[in-house]
Amino acid sequence: MQFSFASYILIPMDVETQEDHLKAYGITYWVLAKNEKVKWLLNYRGGSFLISDTEATRKECQIRGVSFEILSDAKAEVMLEEISSPSKNQESVVLEKAPKIAVYSPKGSLPWDDAVTMVLTYAEIPYDVVYDTEVLQDKLLLYDWLHLHHEDFTGQFGKFYGAYRATPWYINDKKKAEELAAELGYNKVSEEKLAVASSIRDYVVGGGFMFAMCSATDSFDIALAASETDICEPMFDGDPSEPNYQSKLDFSKTFAFRDFLLERDPMEYEFSSIDMTHKRESVQKETDYFTLMEFSAKWDPIPTMLCQNHTALVKGFMGQTTAYDPATIRPTVLVLGENKINGEARYIHGIKGKGFFTFYGGHDPEDYQHHVGDPKTELELHPNSPGYRLILNNVLFPAAKKKKQKT
Prior knowledge:
Oligomer: single chain
Helix content: 25-40%
Number of strands: 14
């Protein structure tokens, strides 16, 4: 009599069989946190996960509502052999350890203020909150992965001045930022934020993984480029900006962007020509989608990992920084997702020193045009969100056994 012993749990990530794609990442993280390895099956059924079969893992999947299949040792072997075939654009990548996660966010921010904290909370992936004090004390060295909250690193308080300067929250936020800068020994918020951006740059160059969304992406690069000049008007820092500051920008210091023009008007809710938000007149909500690029899983596992999804077409969403003008993107930076109709990059990735960065345009993948004070997104209603999956791909990325990228 032939017995077939169940040896593996397959967590499928295709559109047909997975009940909760987002919580599936949480299960994978939970297994890694127990010092067990996971195989990430790139381009196989939407980027599925293969885990050693245990009663505890089965139970955890059931508790969290994550779909799974039991595979015999022989069946798993046949599947892995198929994936390794040179004719298949698939690959099996070993995930080795649960990355330690830091979210850069102001104290007192609620998890739903930011898409990343929201999805980490929903997927039950643990994270620590850090802010300027911790960054300037080199606490980032304790972490494998850093997310930047929708922050303004230029010291212009989010360019909210035009619309919100008289509102209590704006006045309070500005006051708190100025108090923190003084407490940390800086005369201006712009100087303190530059120090923070420089410390984050050093973290990445030293081998860290940085993920940023919305205005944290372009404002980070702008702060680095403007490190030798004052671009802030008096309402932001008490003194005028430097004459001809545009010509004094040093693009050699940035991560992703170059040759951009700064928005000089303090009343304008925009930082620079990097962002495409005001260049989207022809884009309608109903037809606003971006396409994920296809890479070779065997030769380019990193971009392939970051693009794992159950669909190549992802619903667009707005933010202060919605998308990036390709004319401002460095040629060494990979575009992972683009809106072809509007000619804009939505999702980009690059290498800096020994580390990596990913920039993702927009504020909330399931809230098309998020406004200040809008109610939070309930992820229970969007458990299969392709836009949120891209965030979680980045969370697992540092867990992968490193292979040299060929692109």
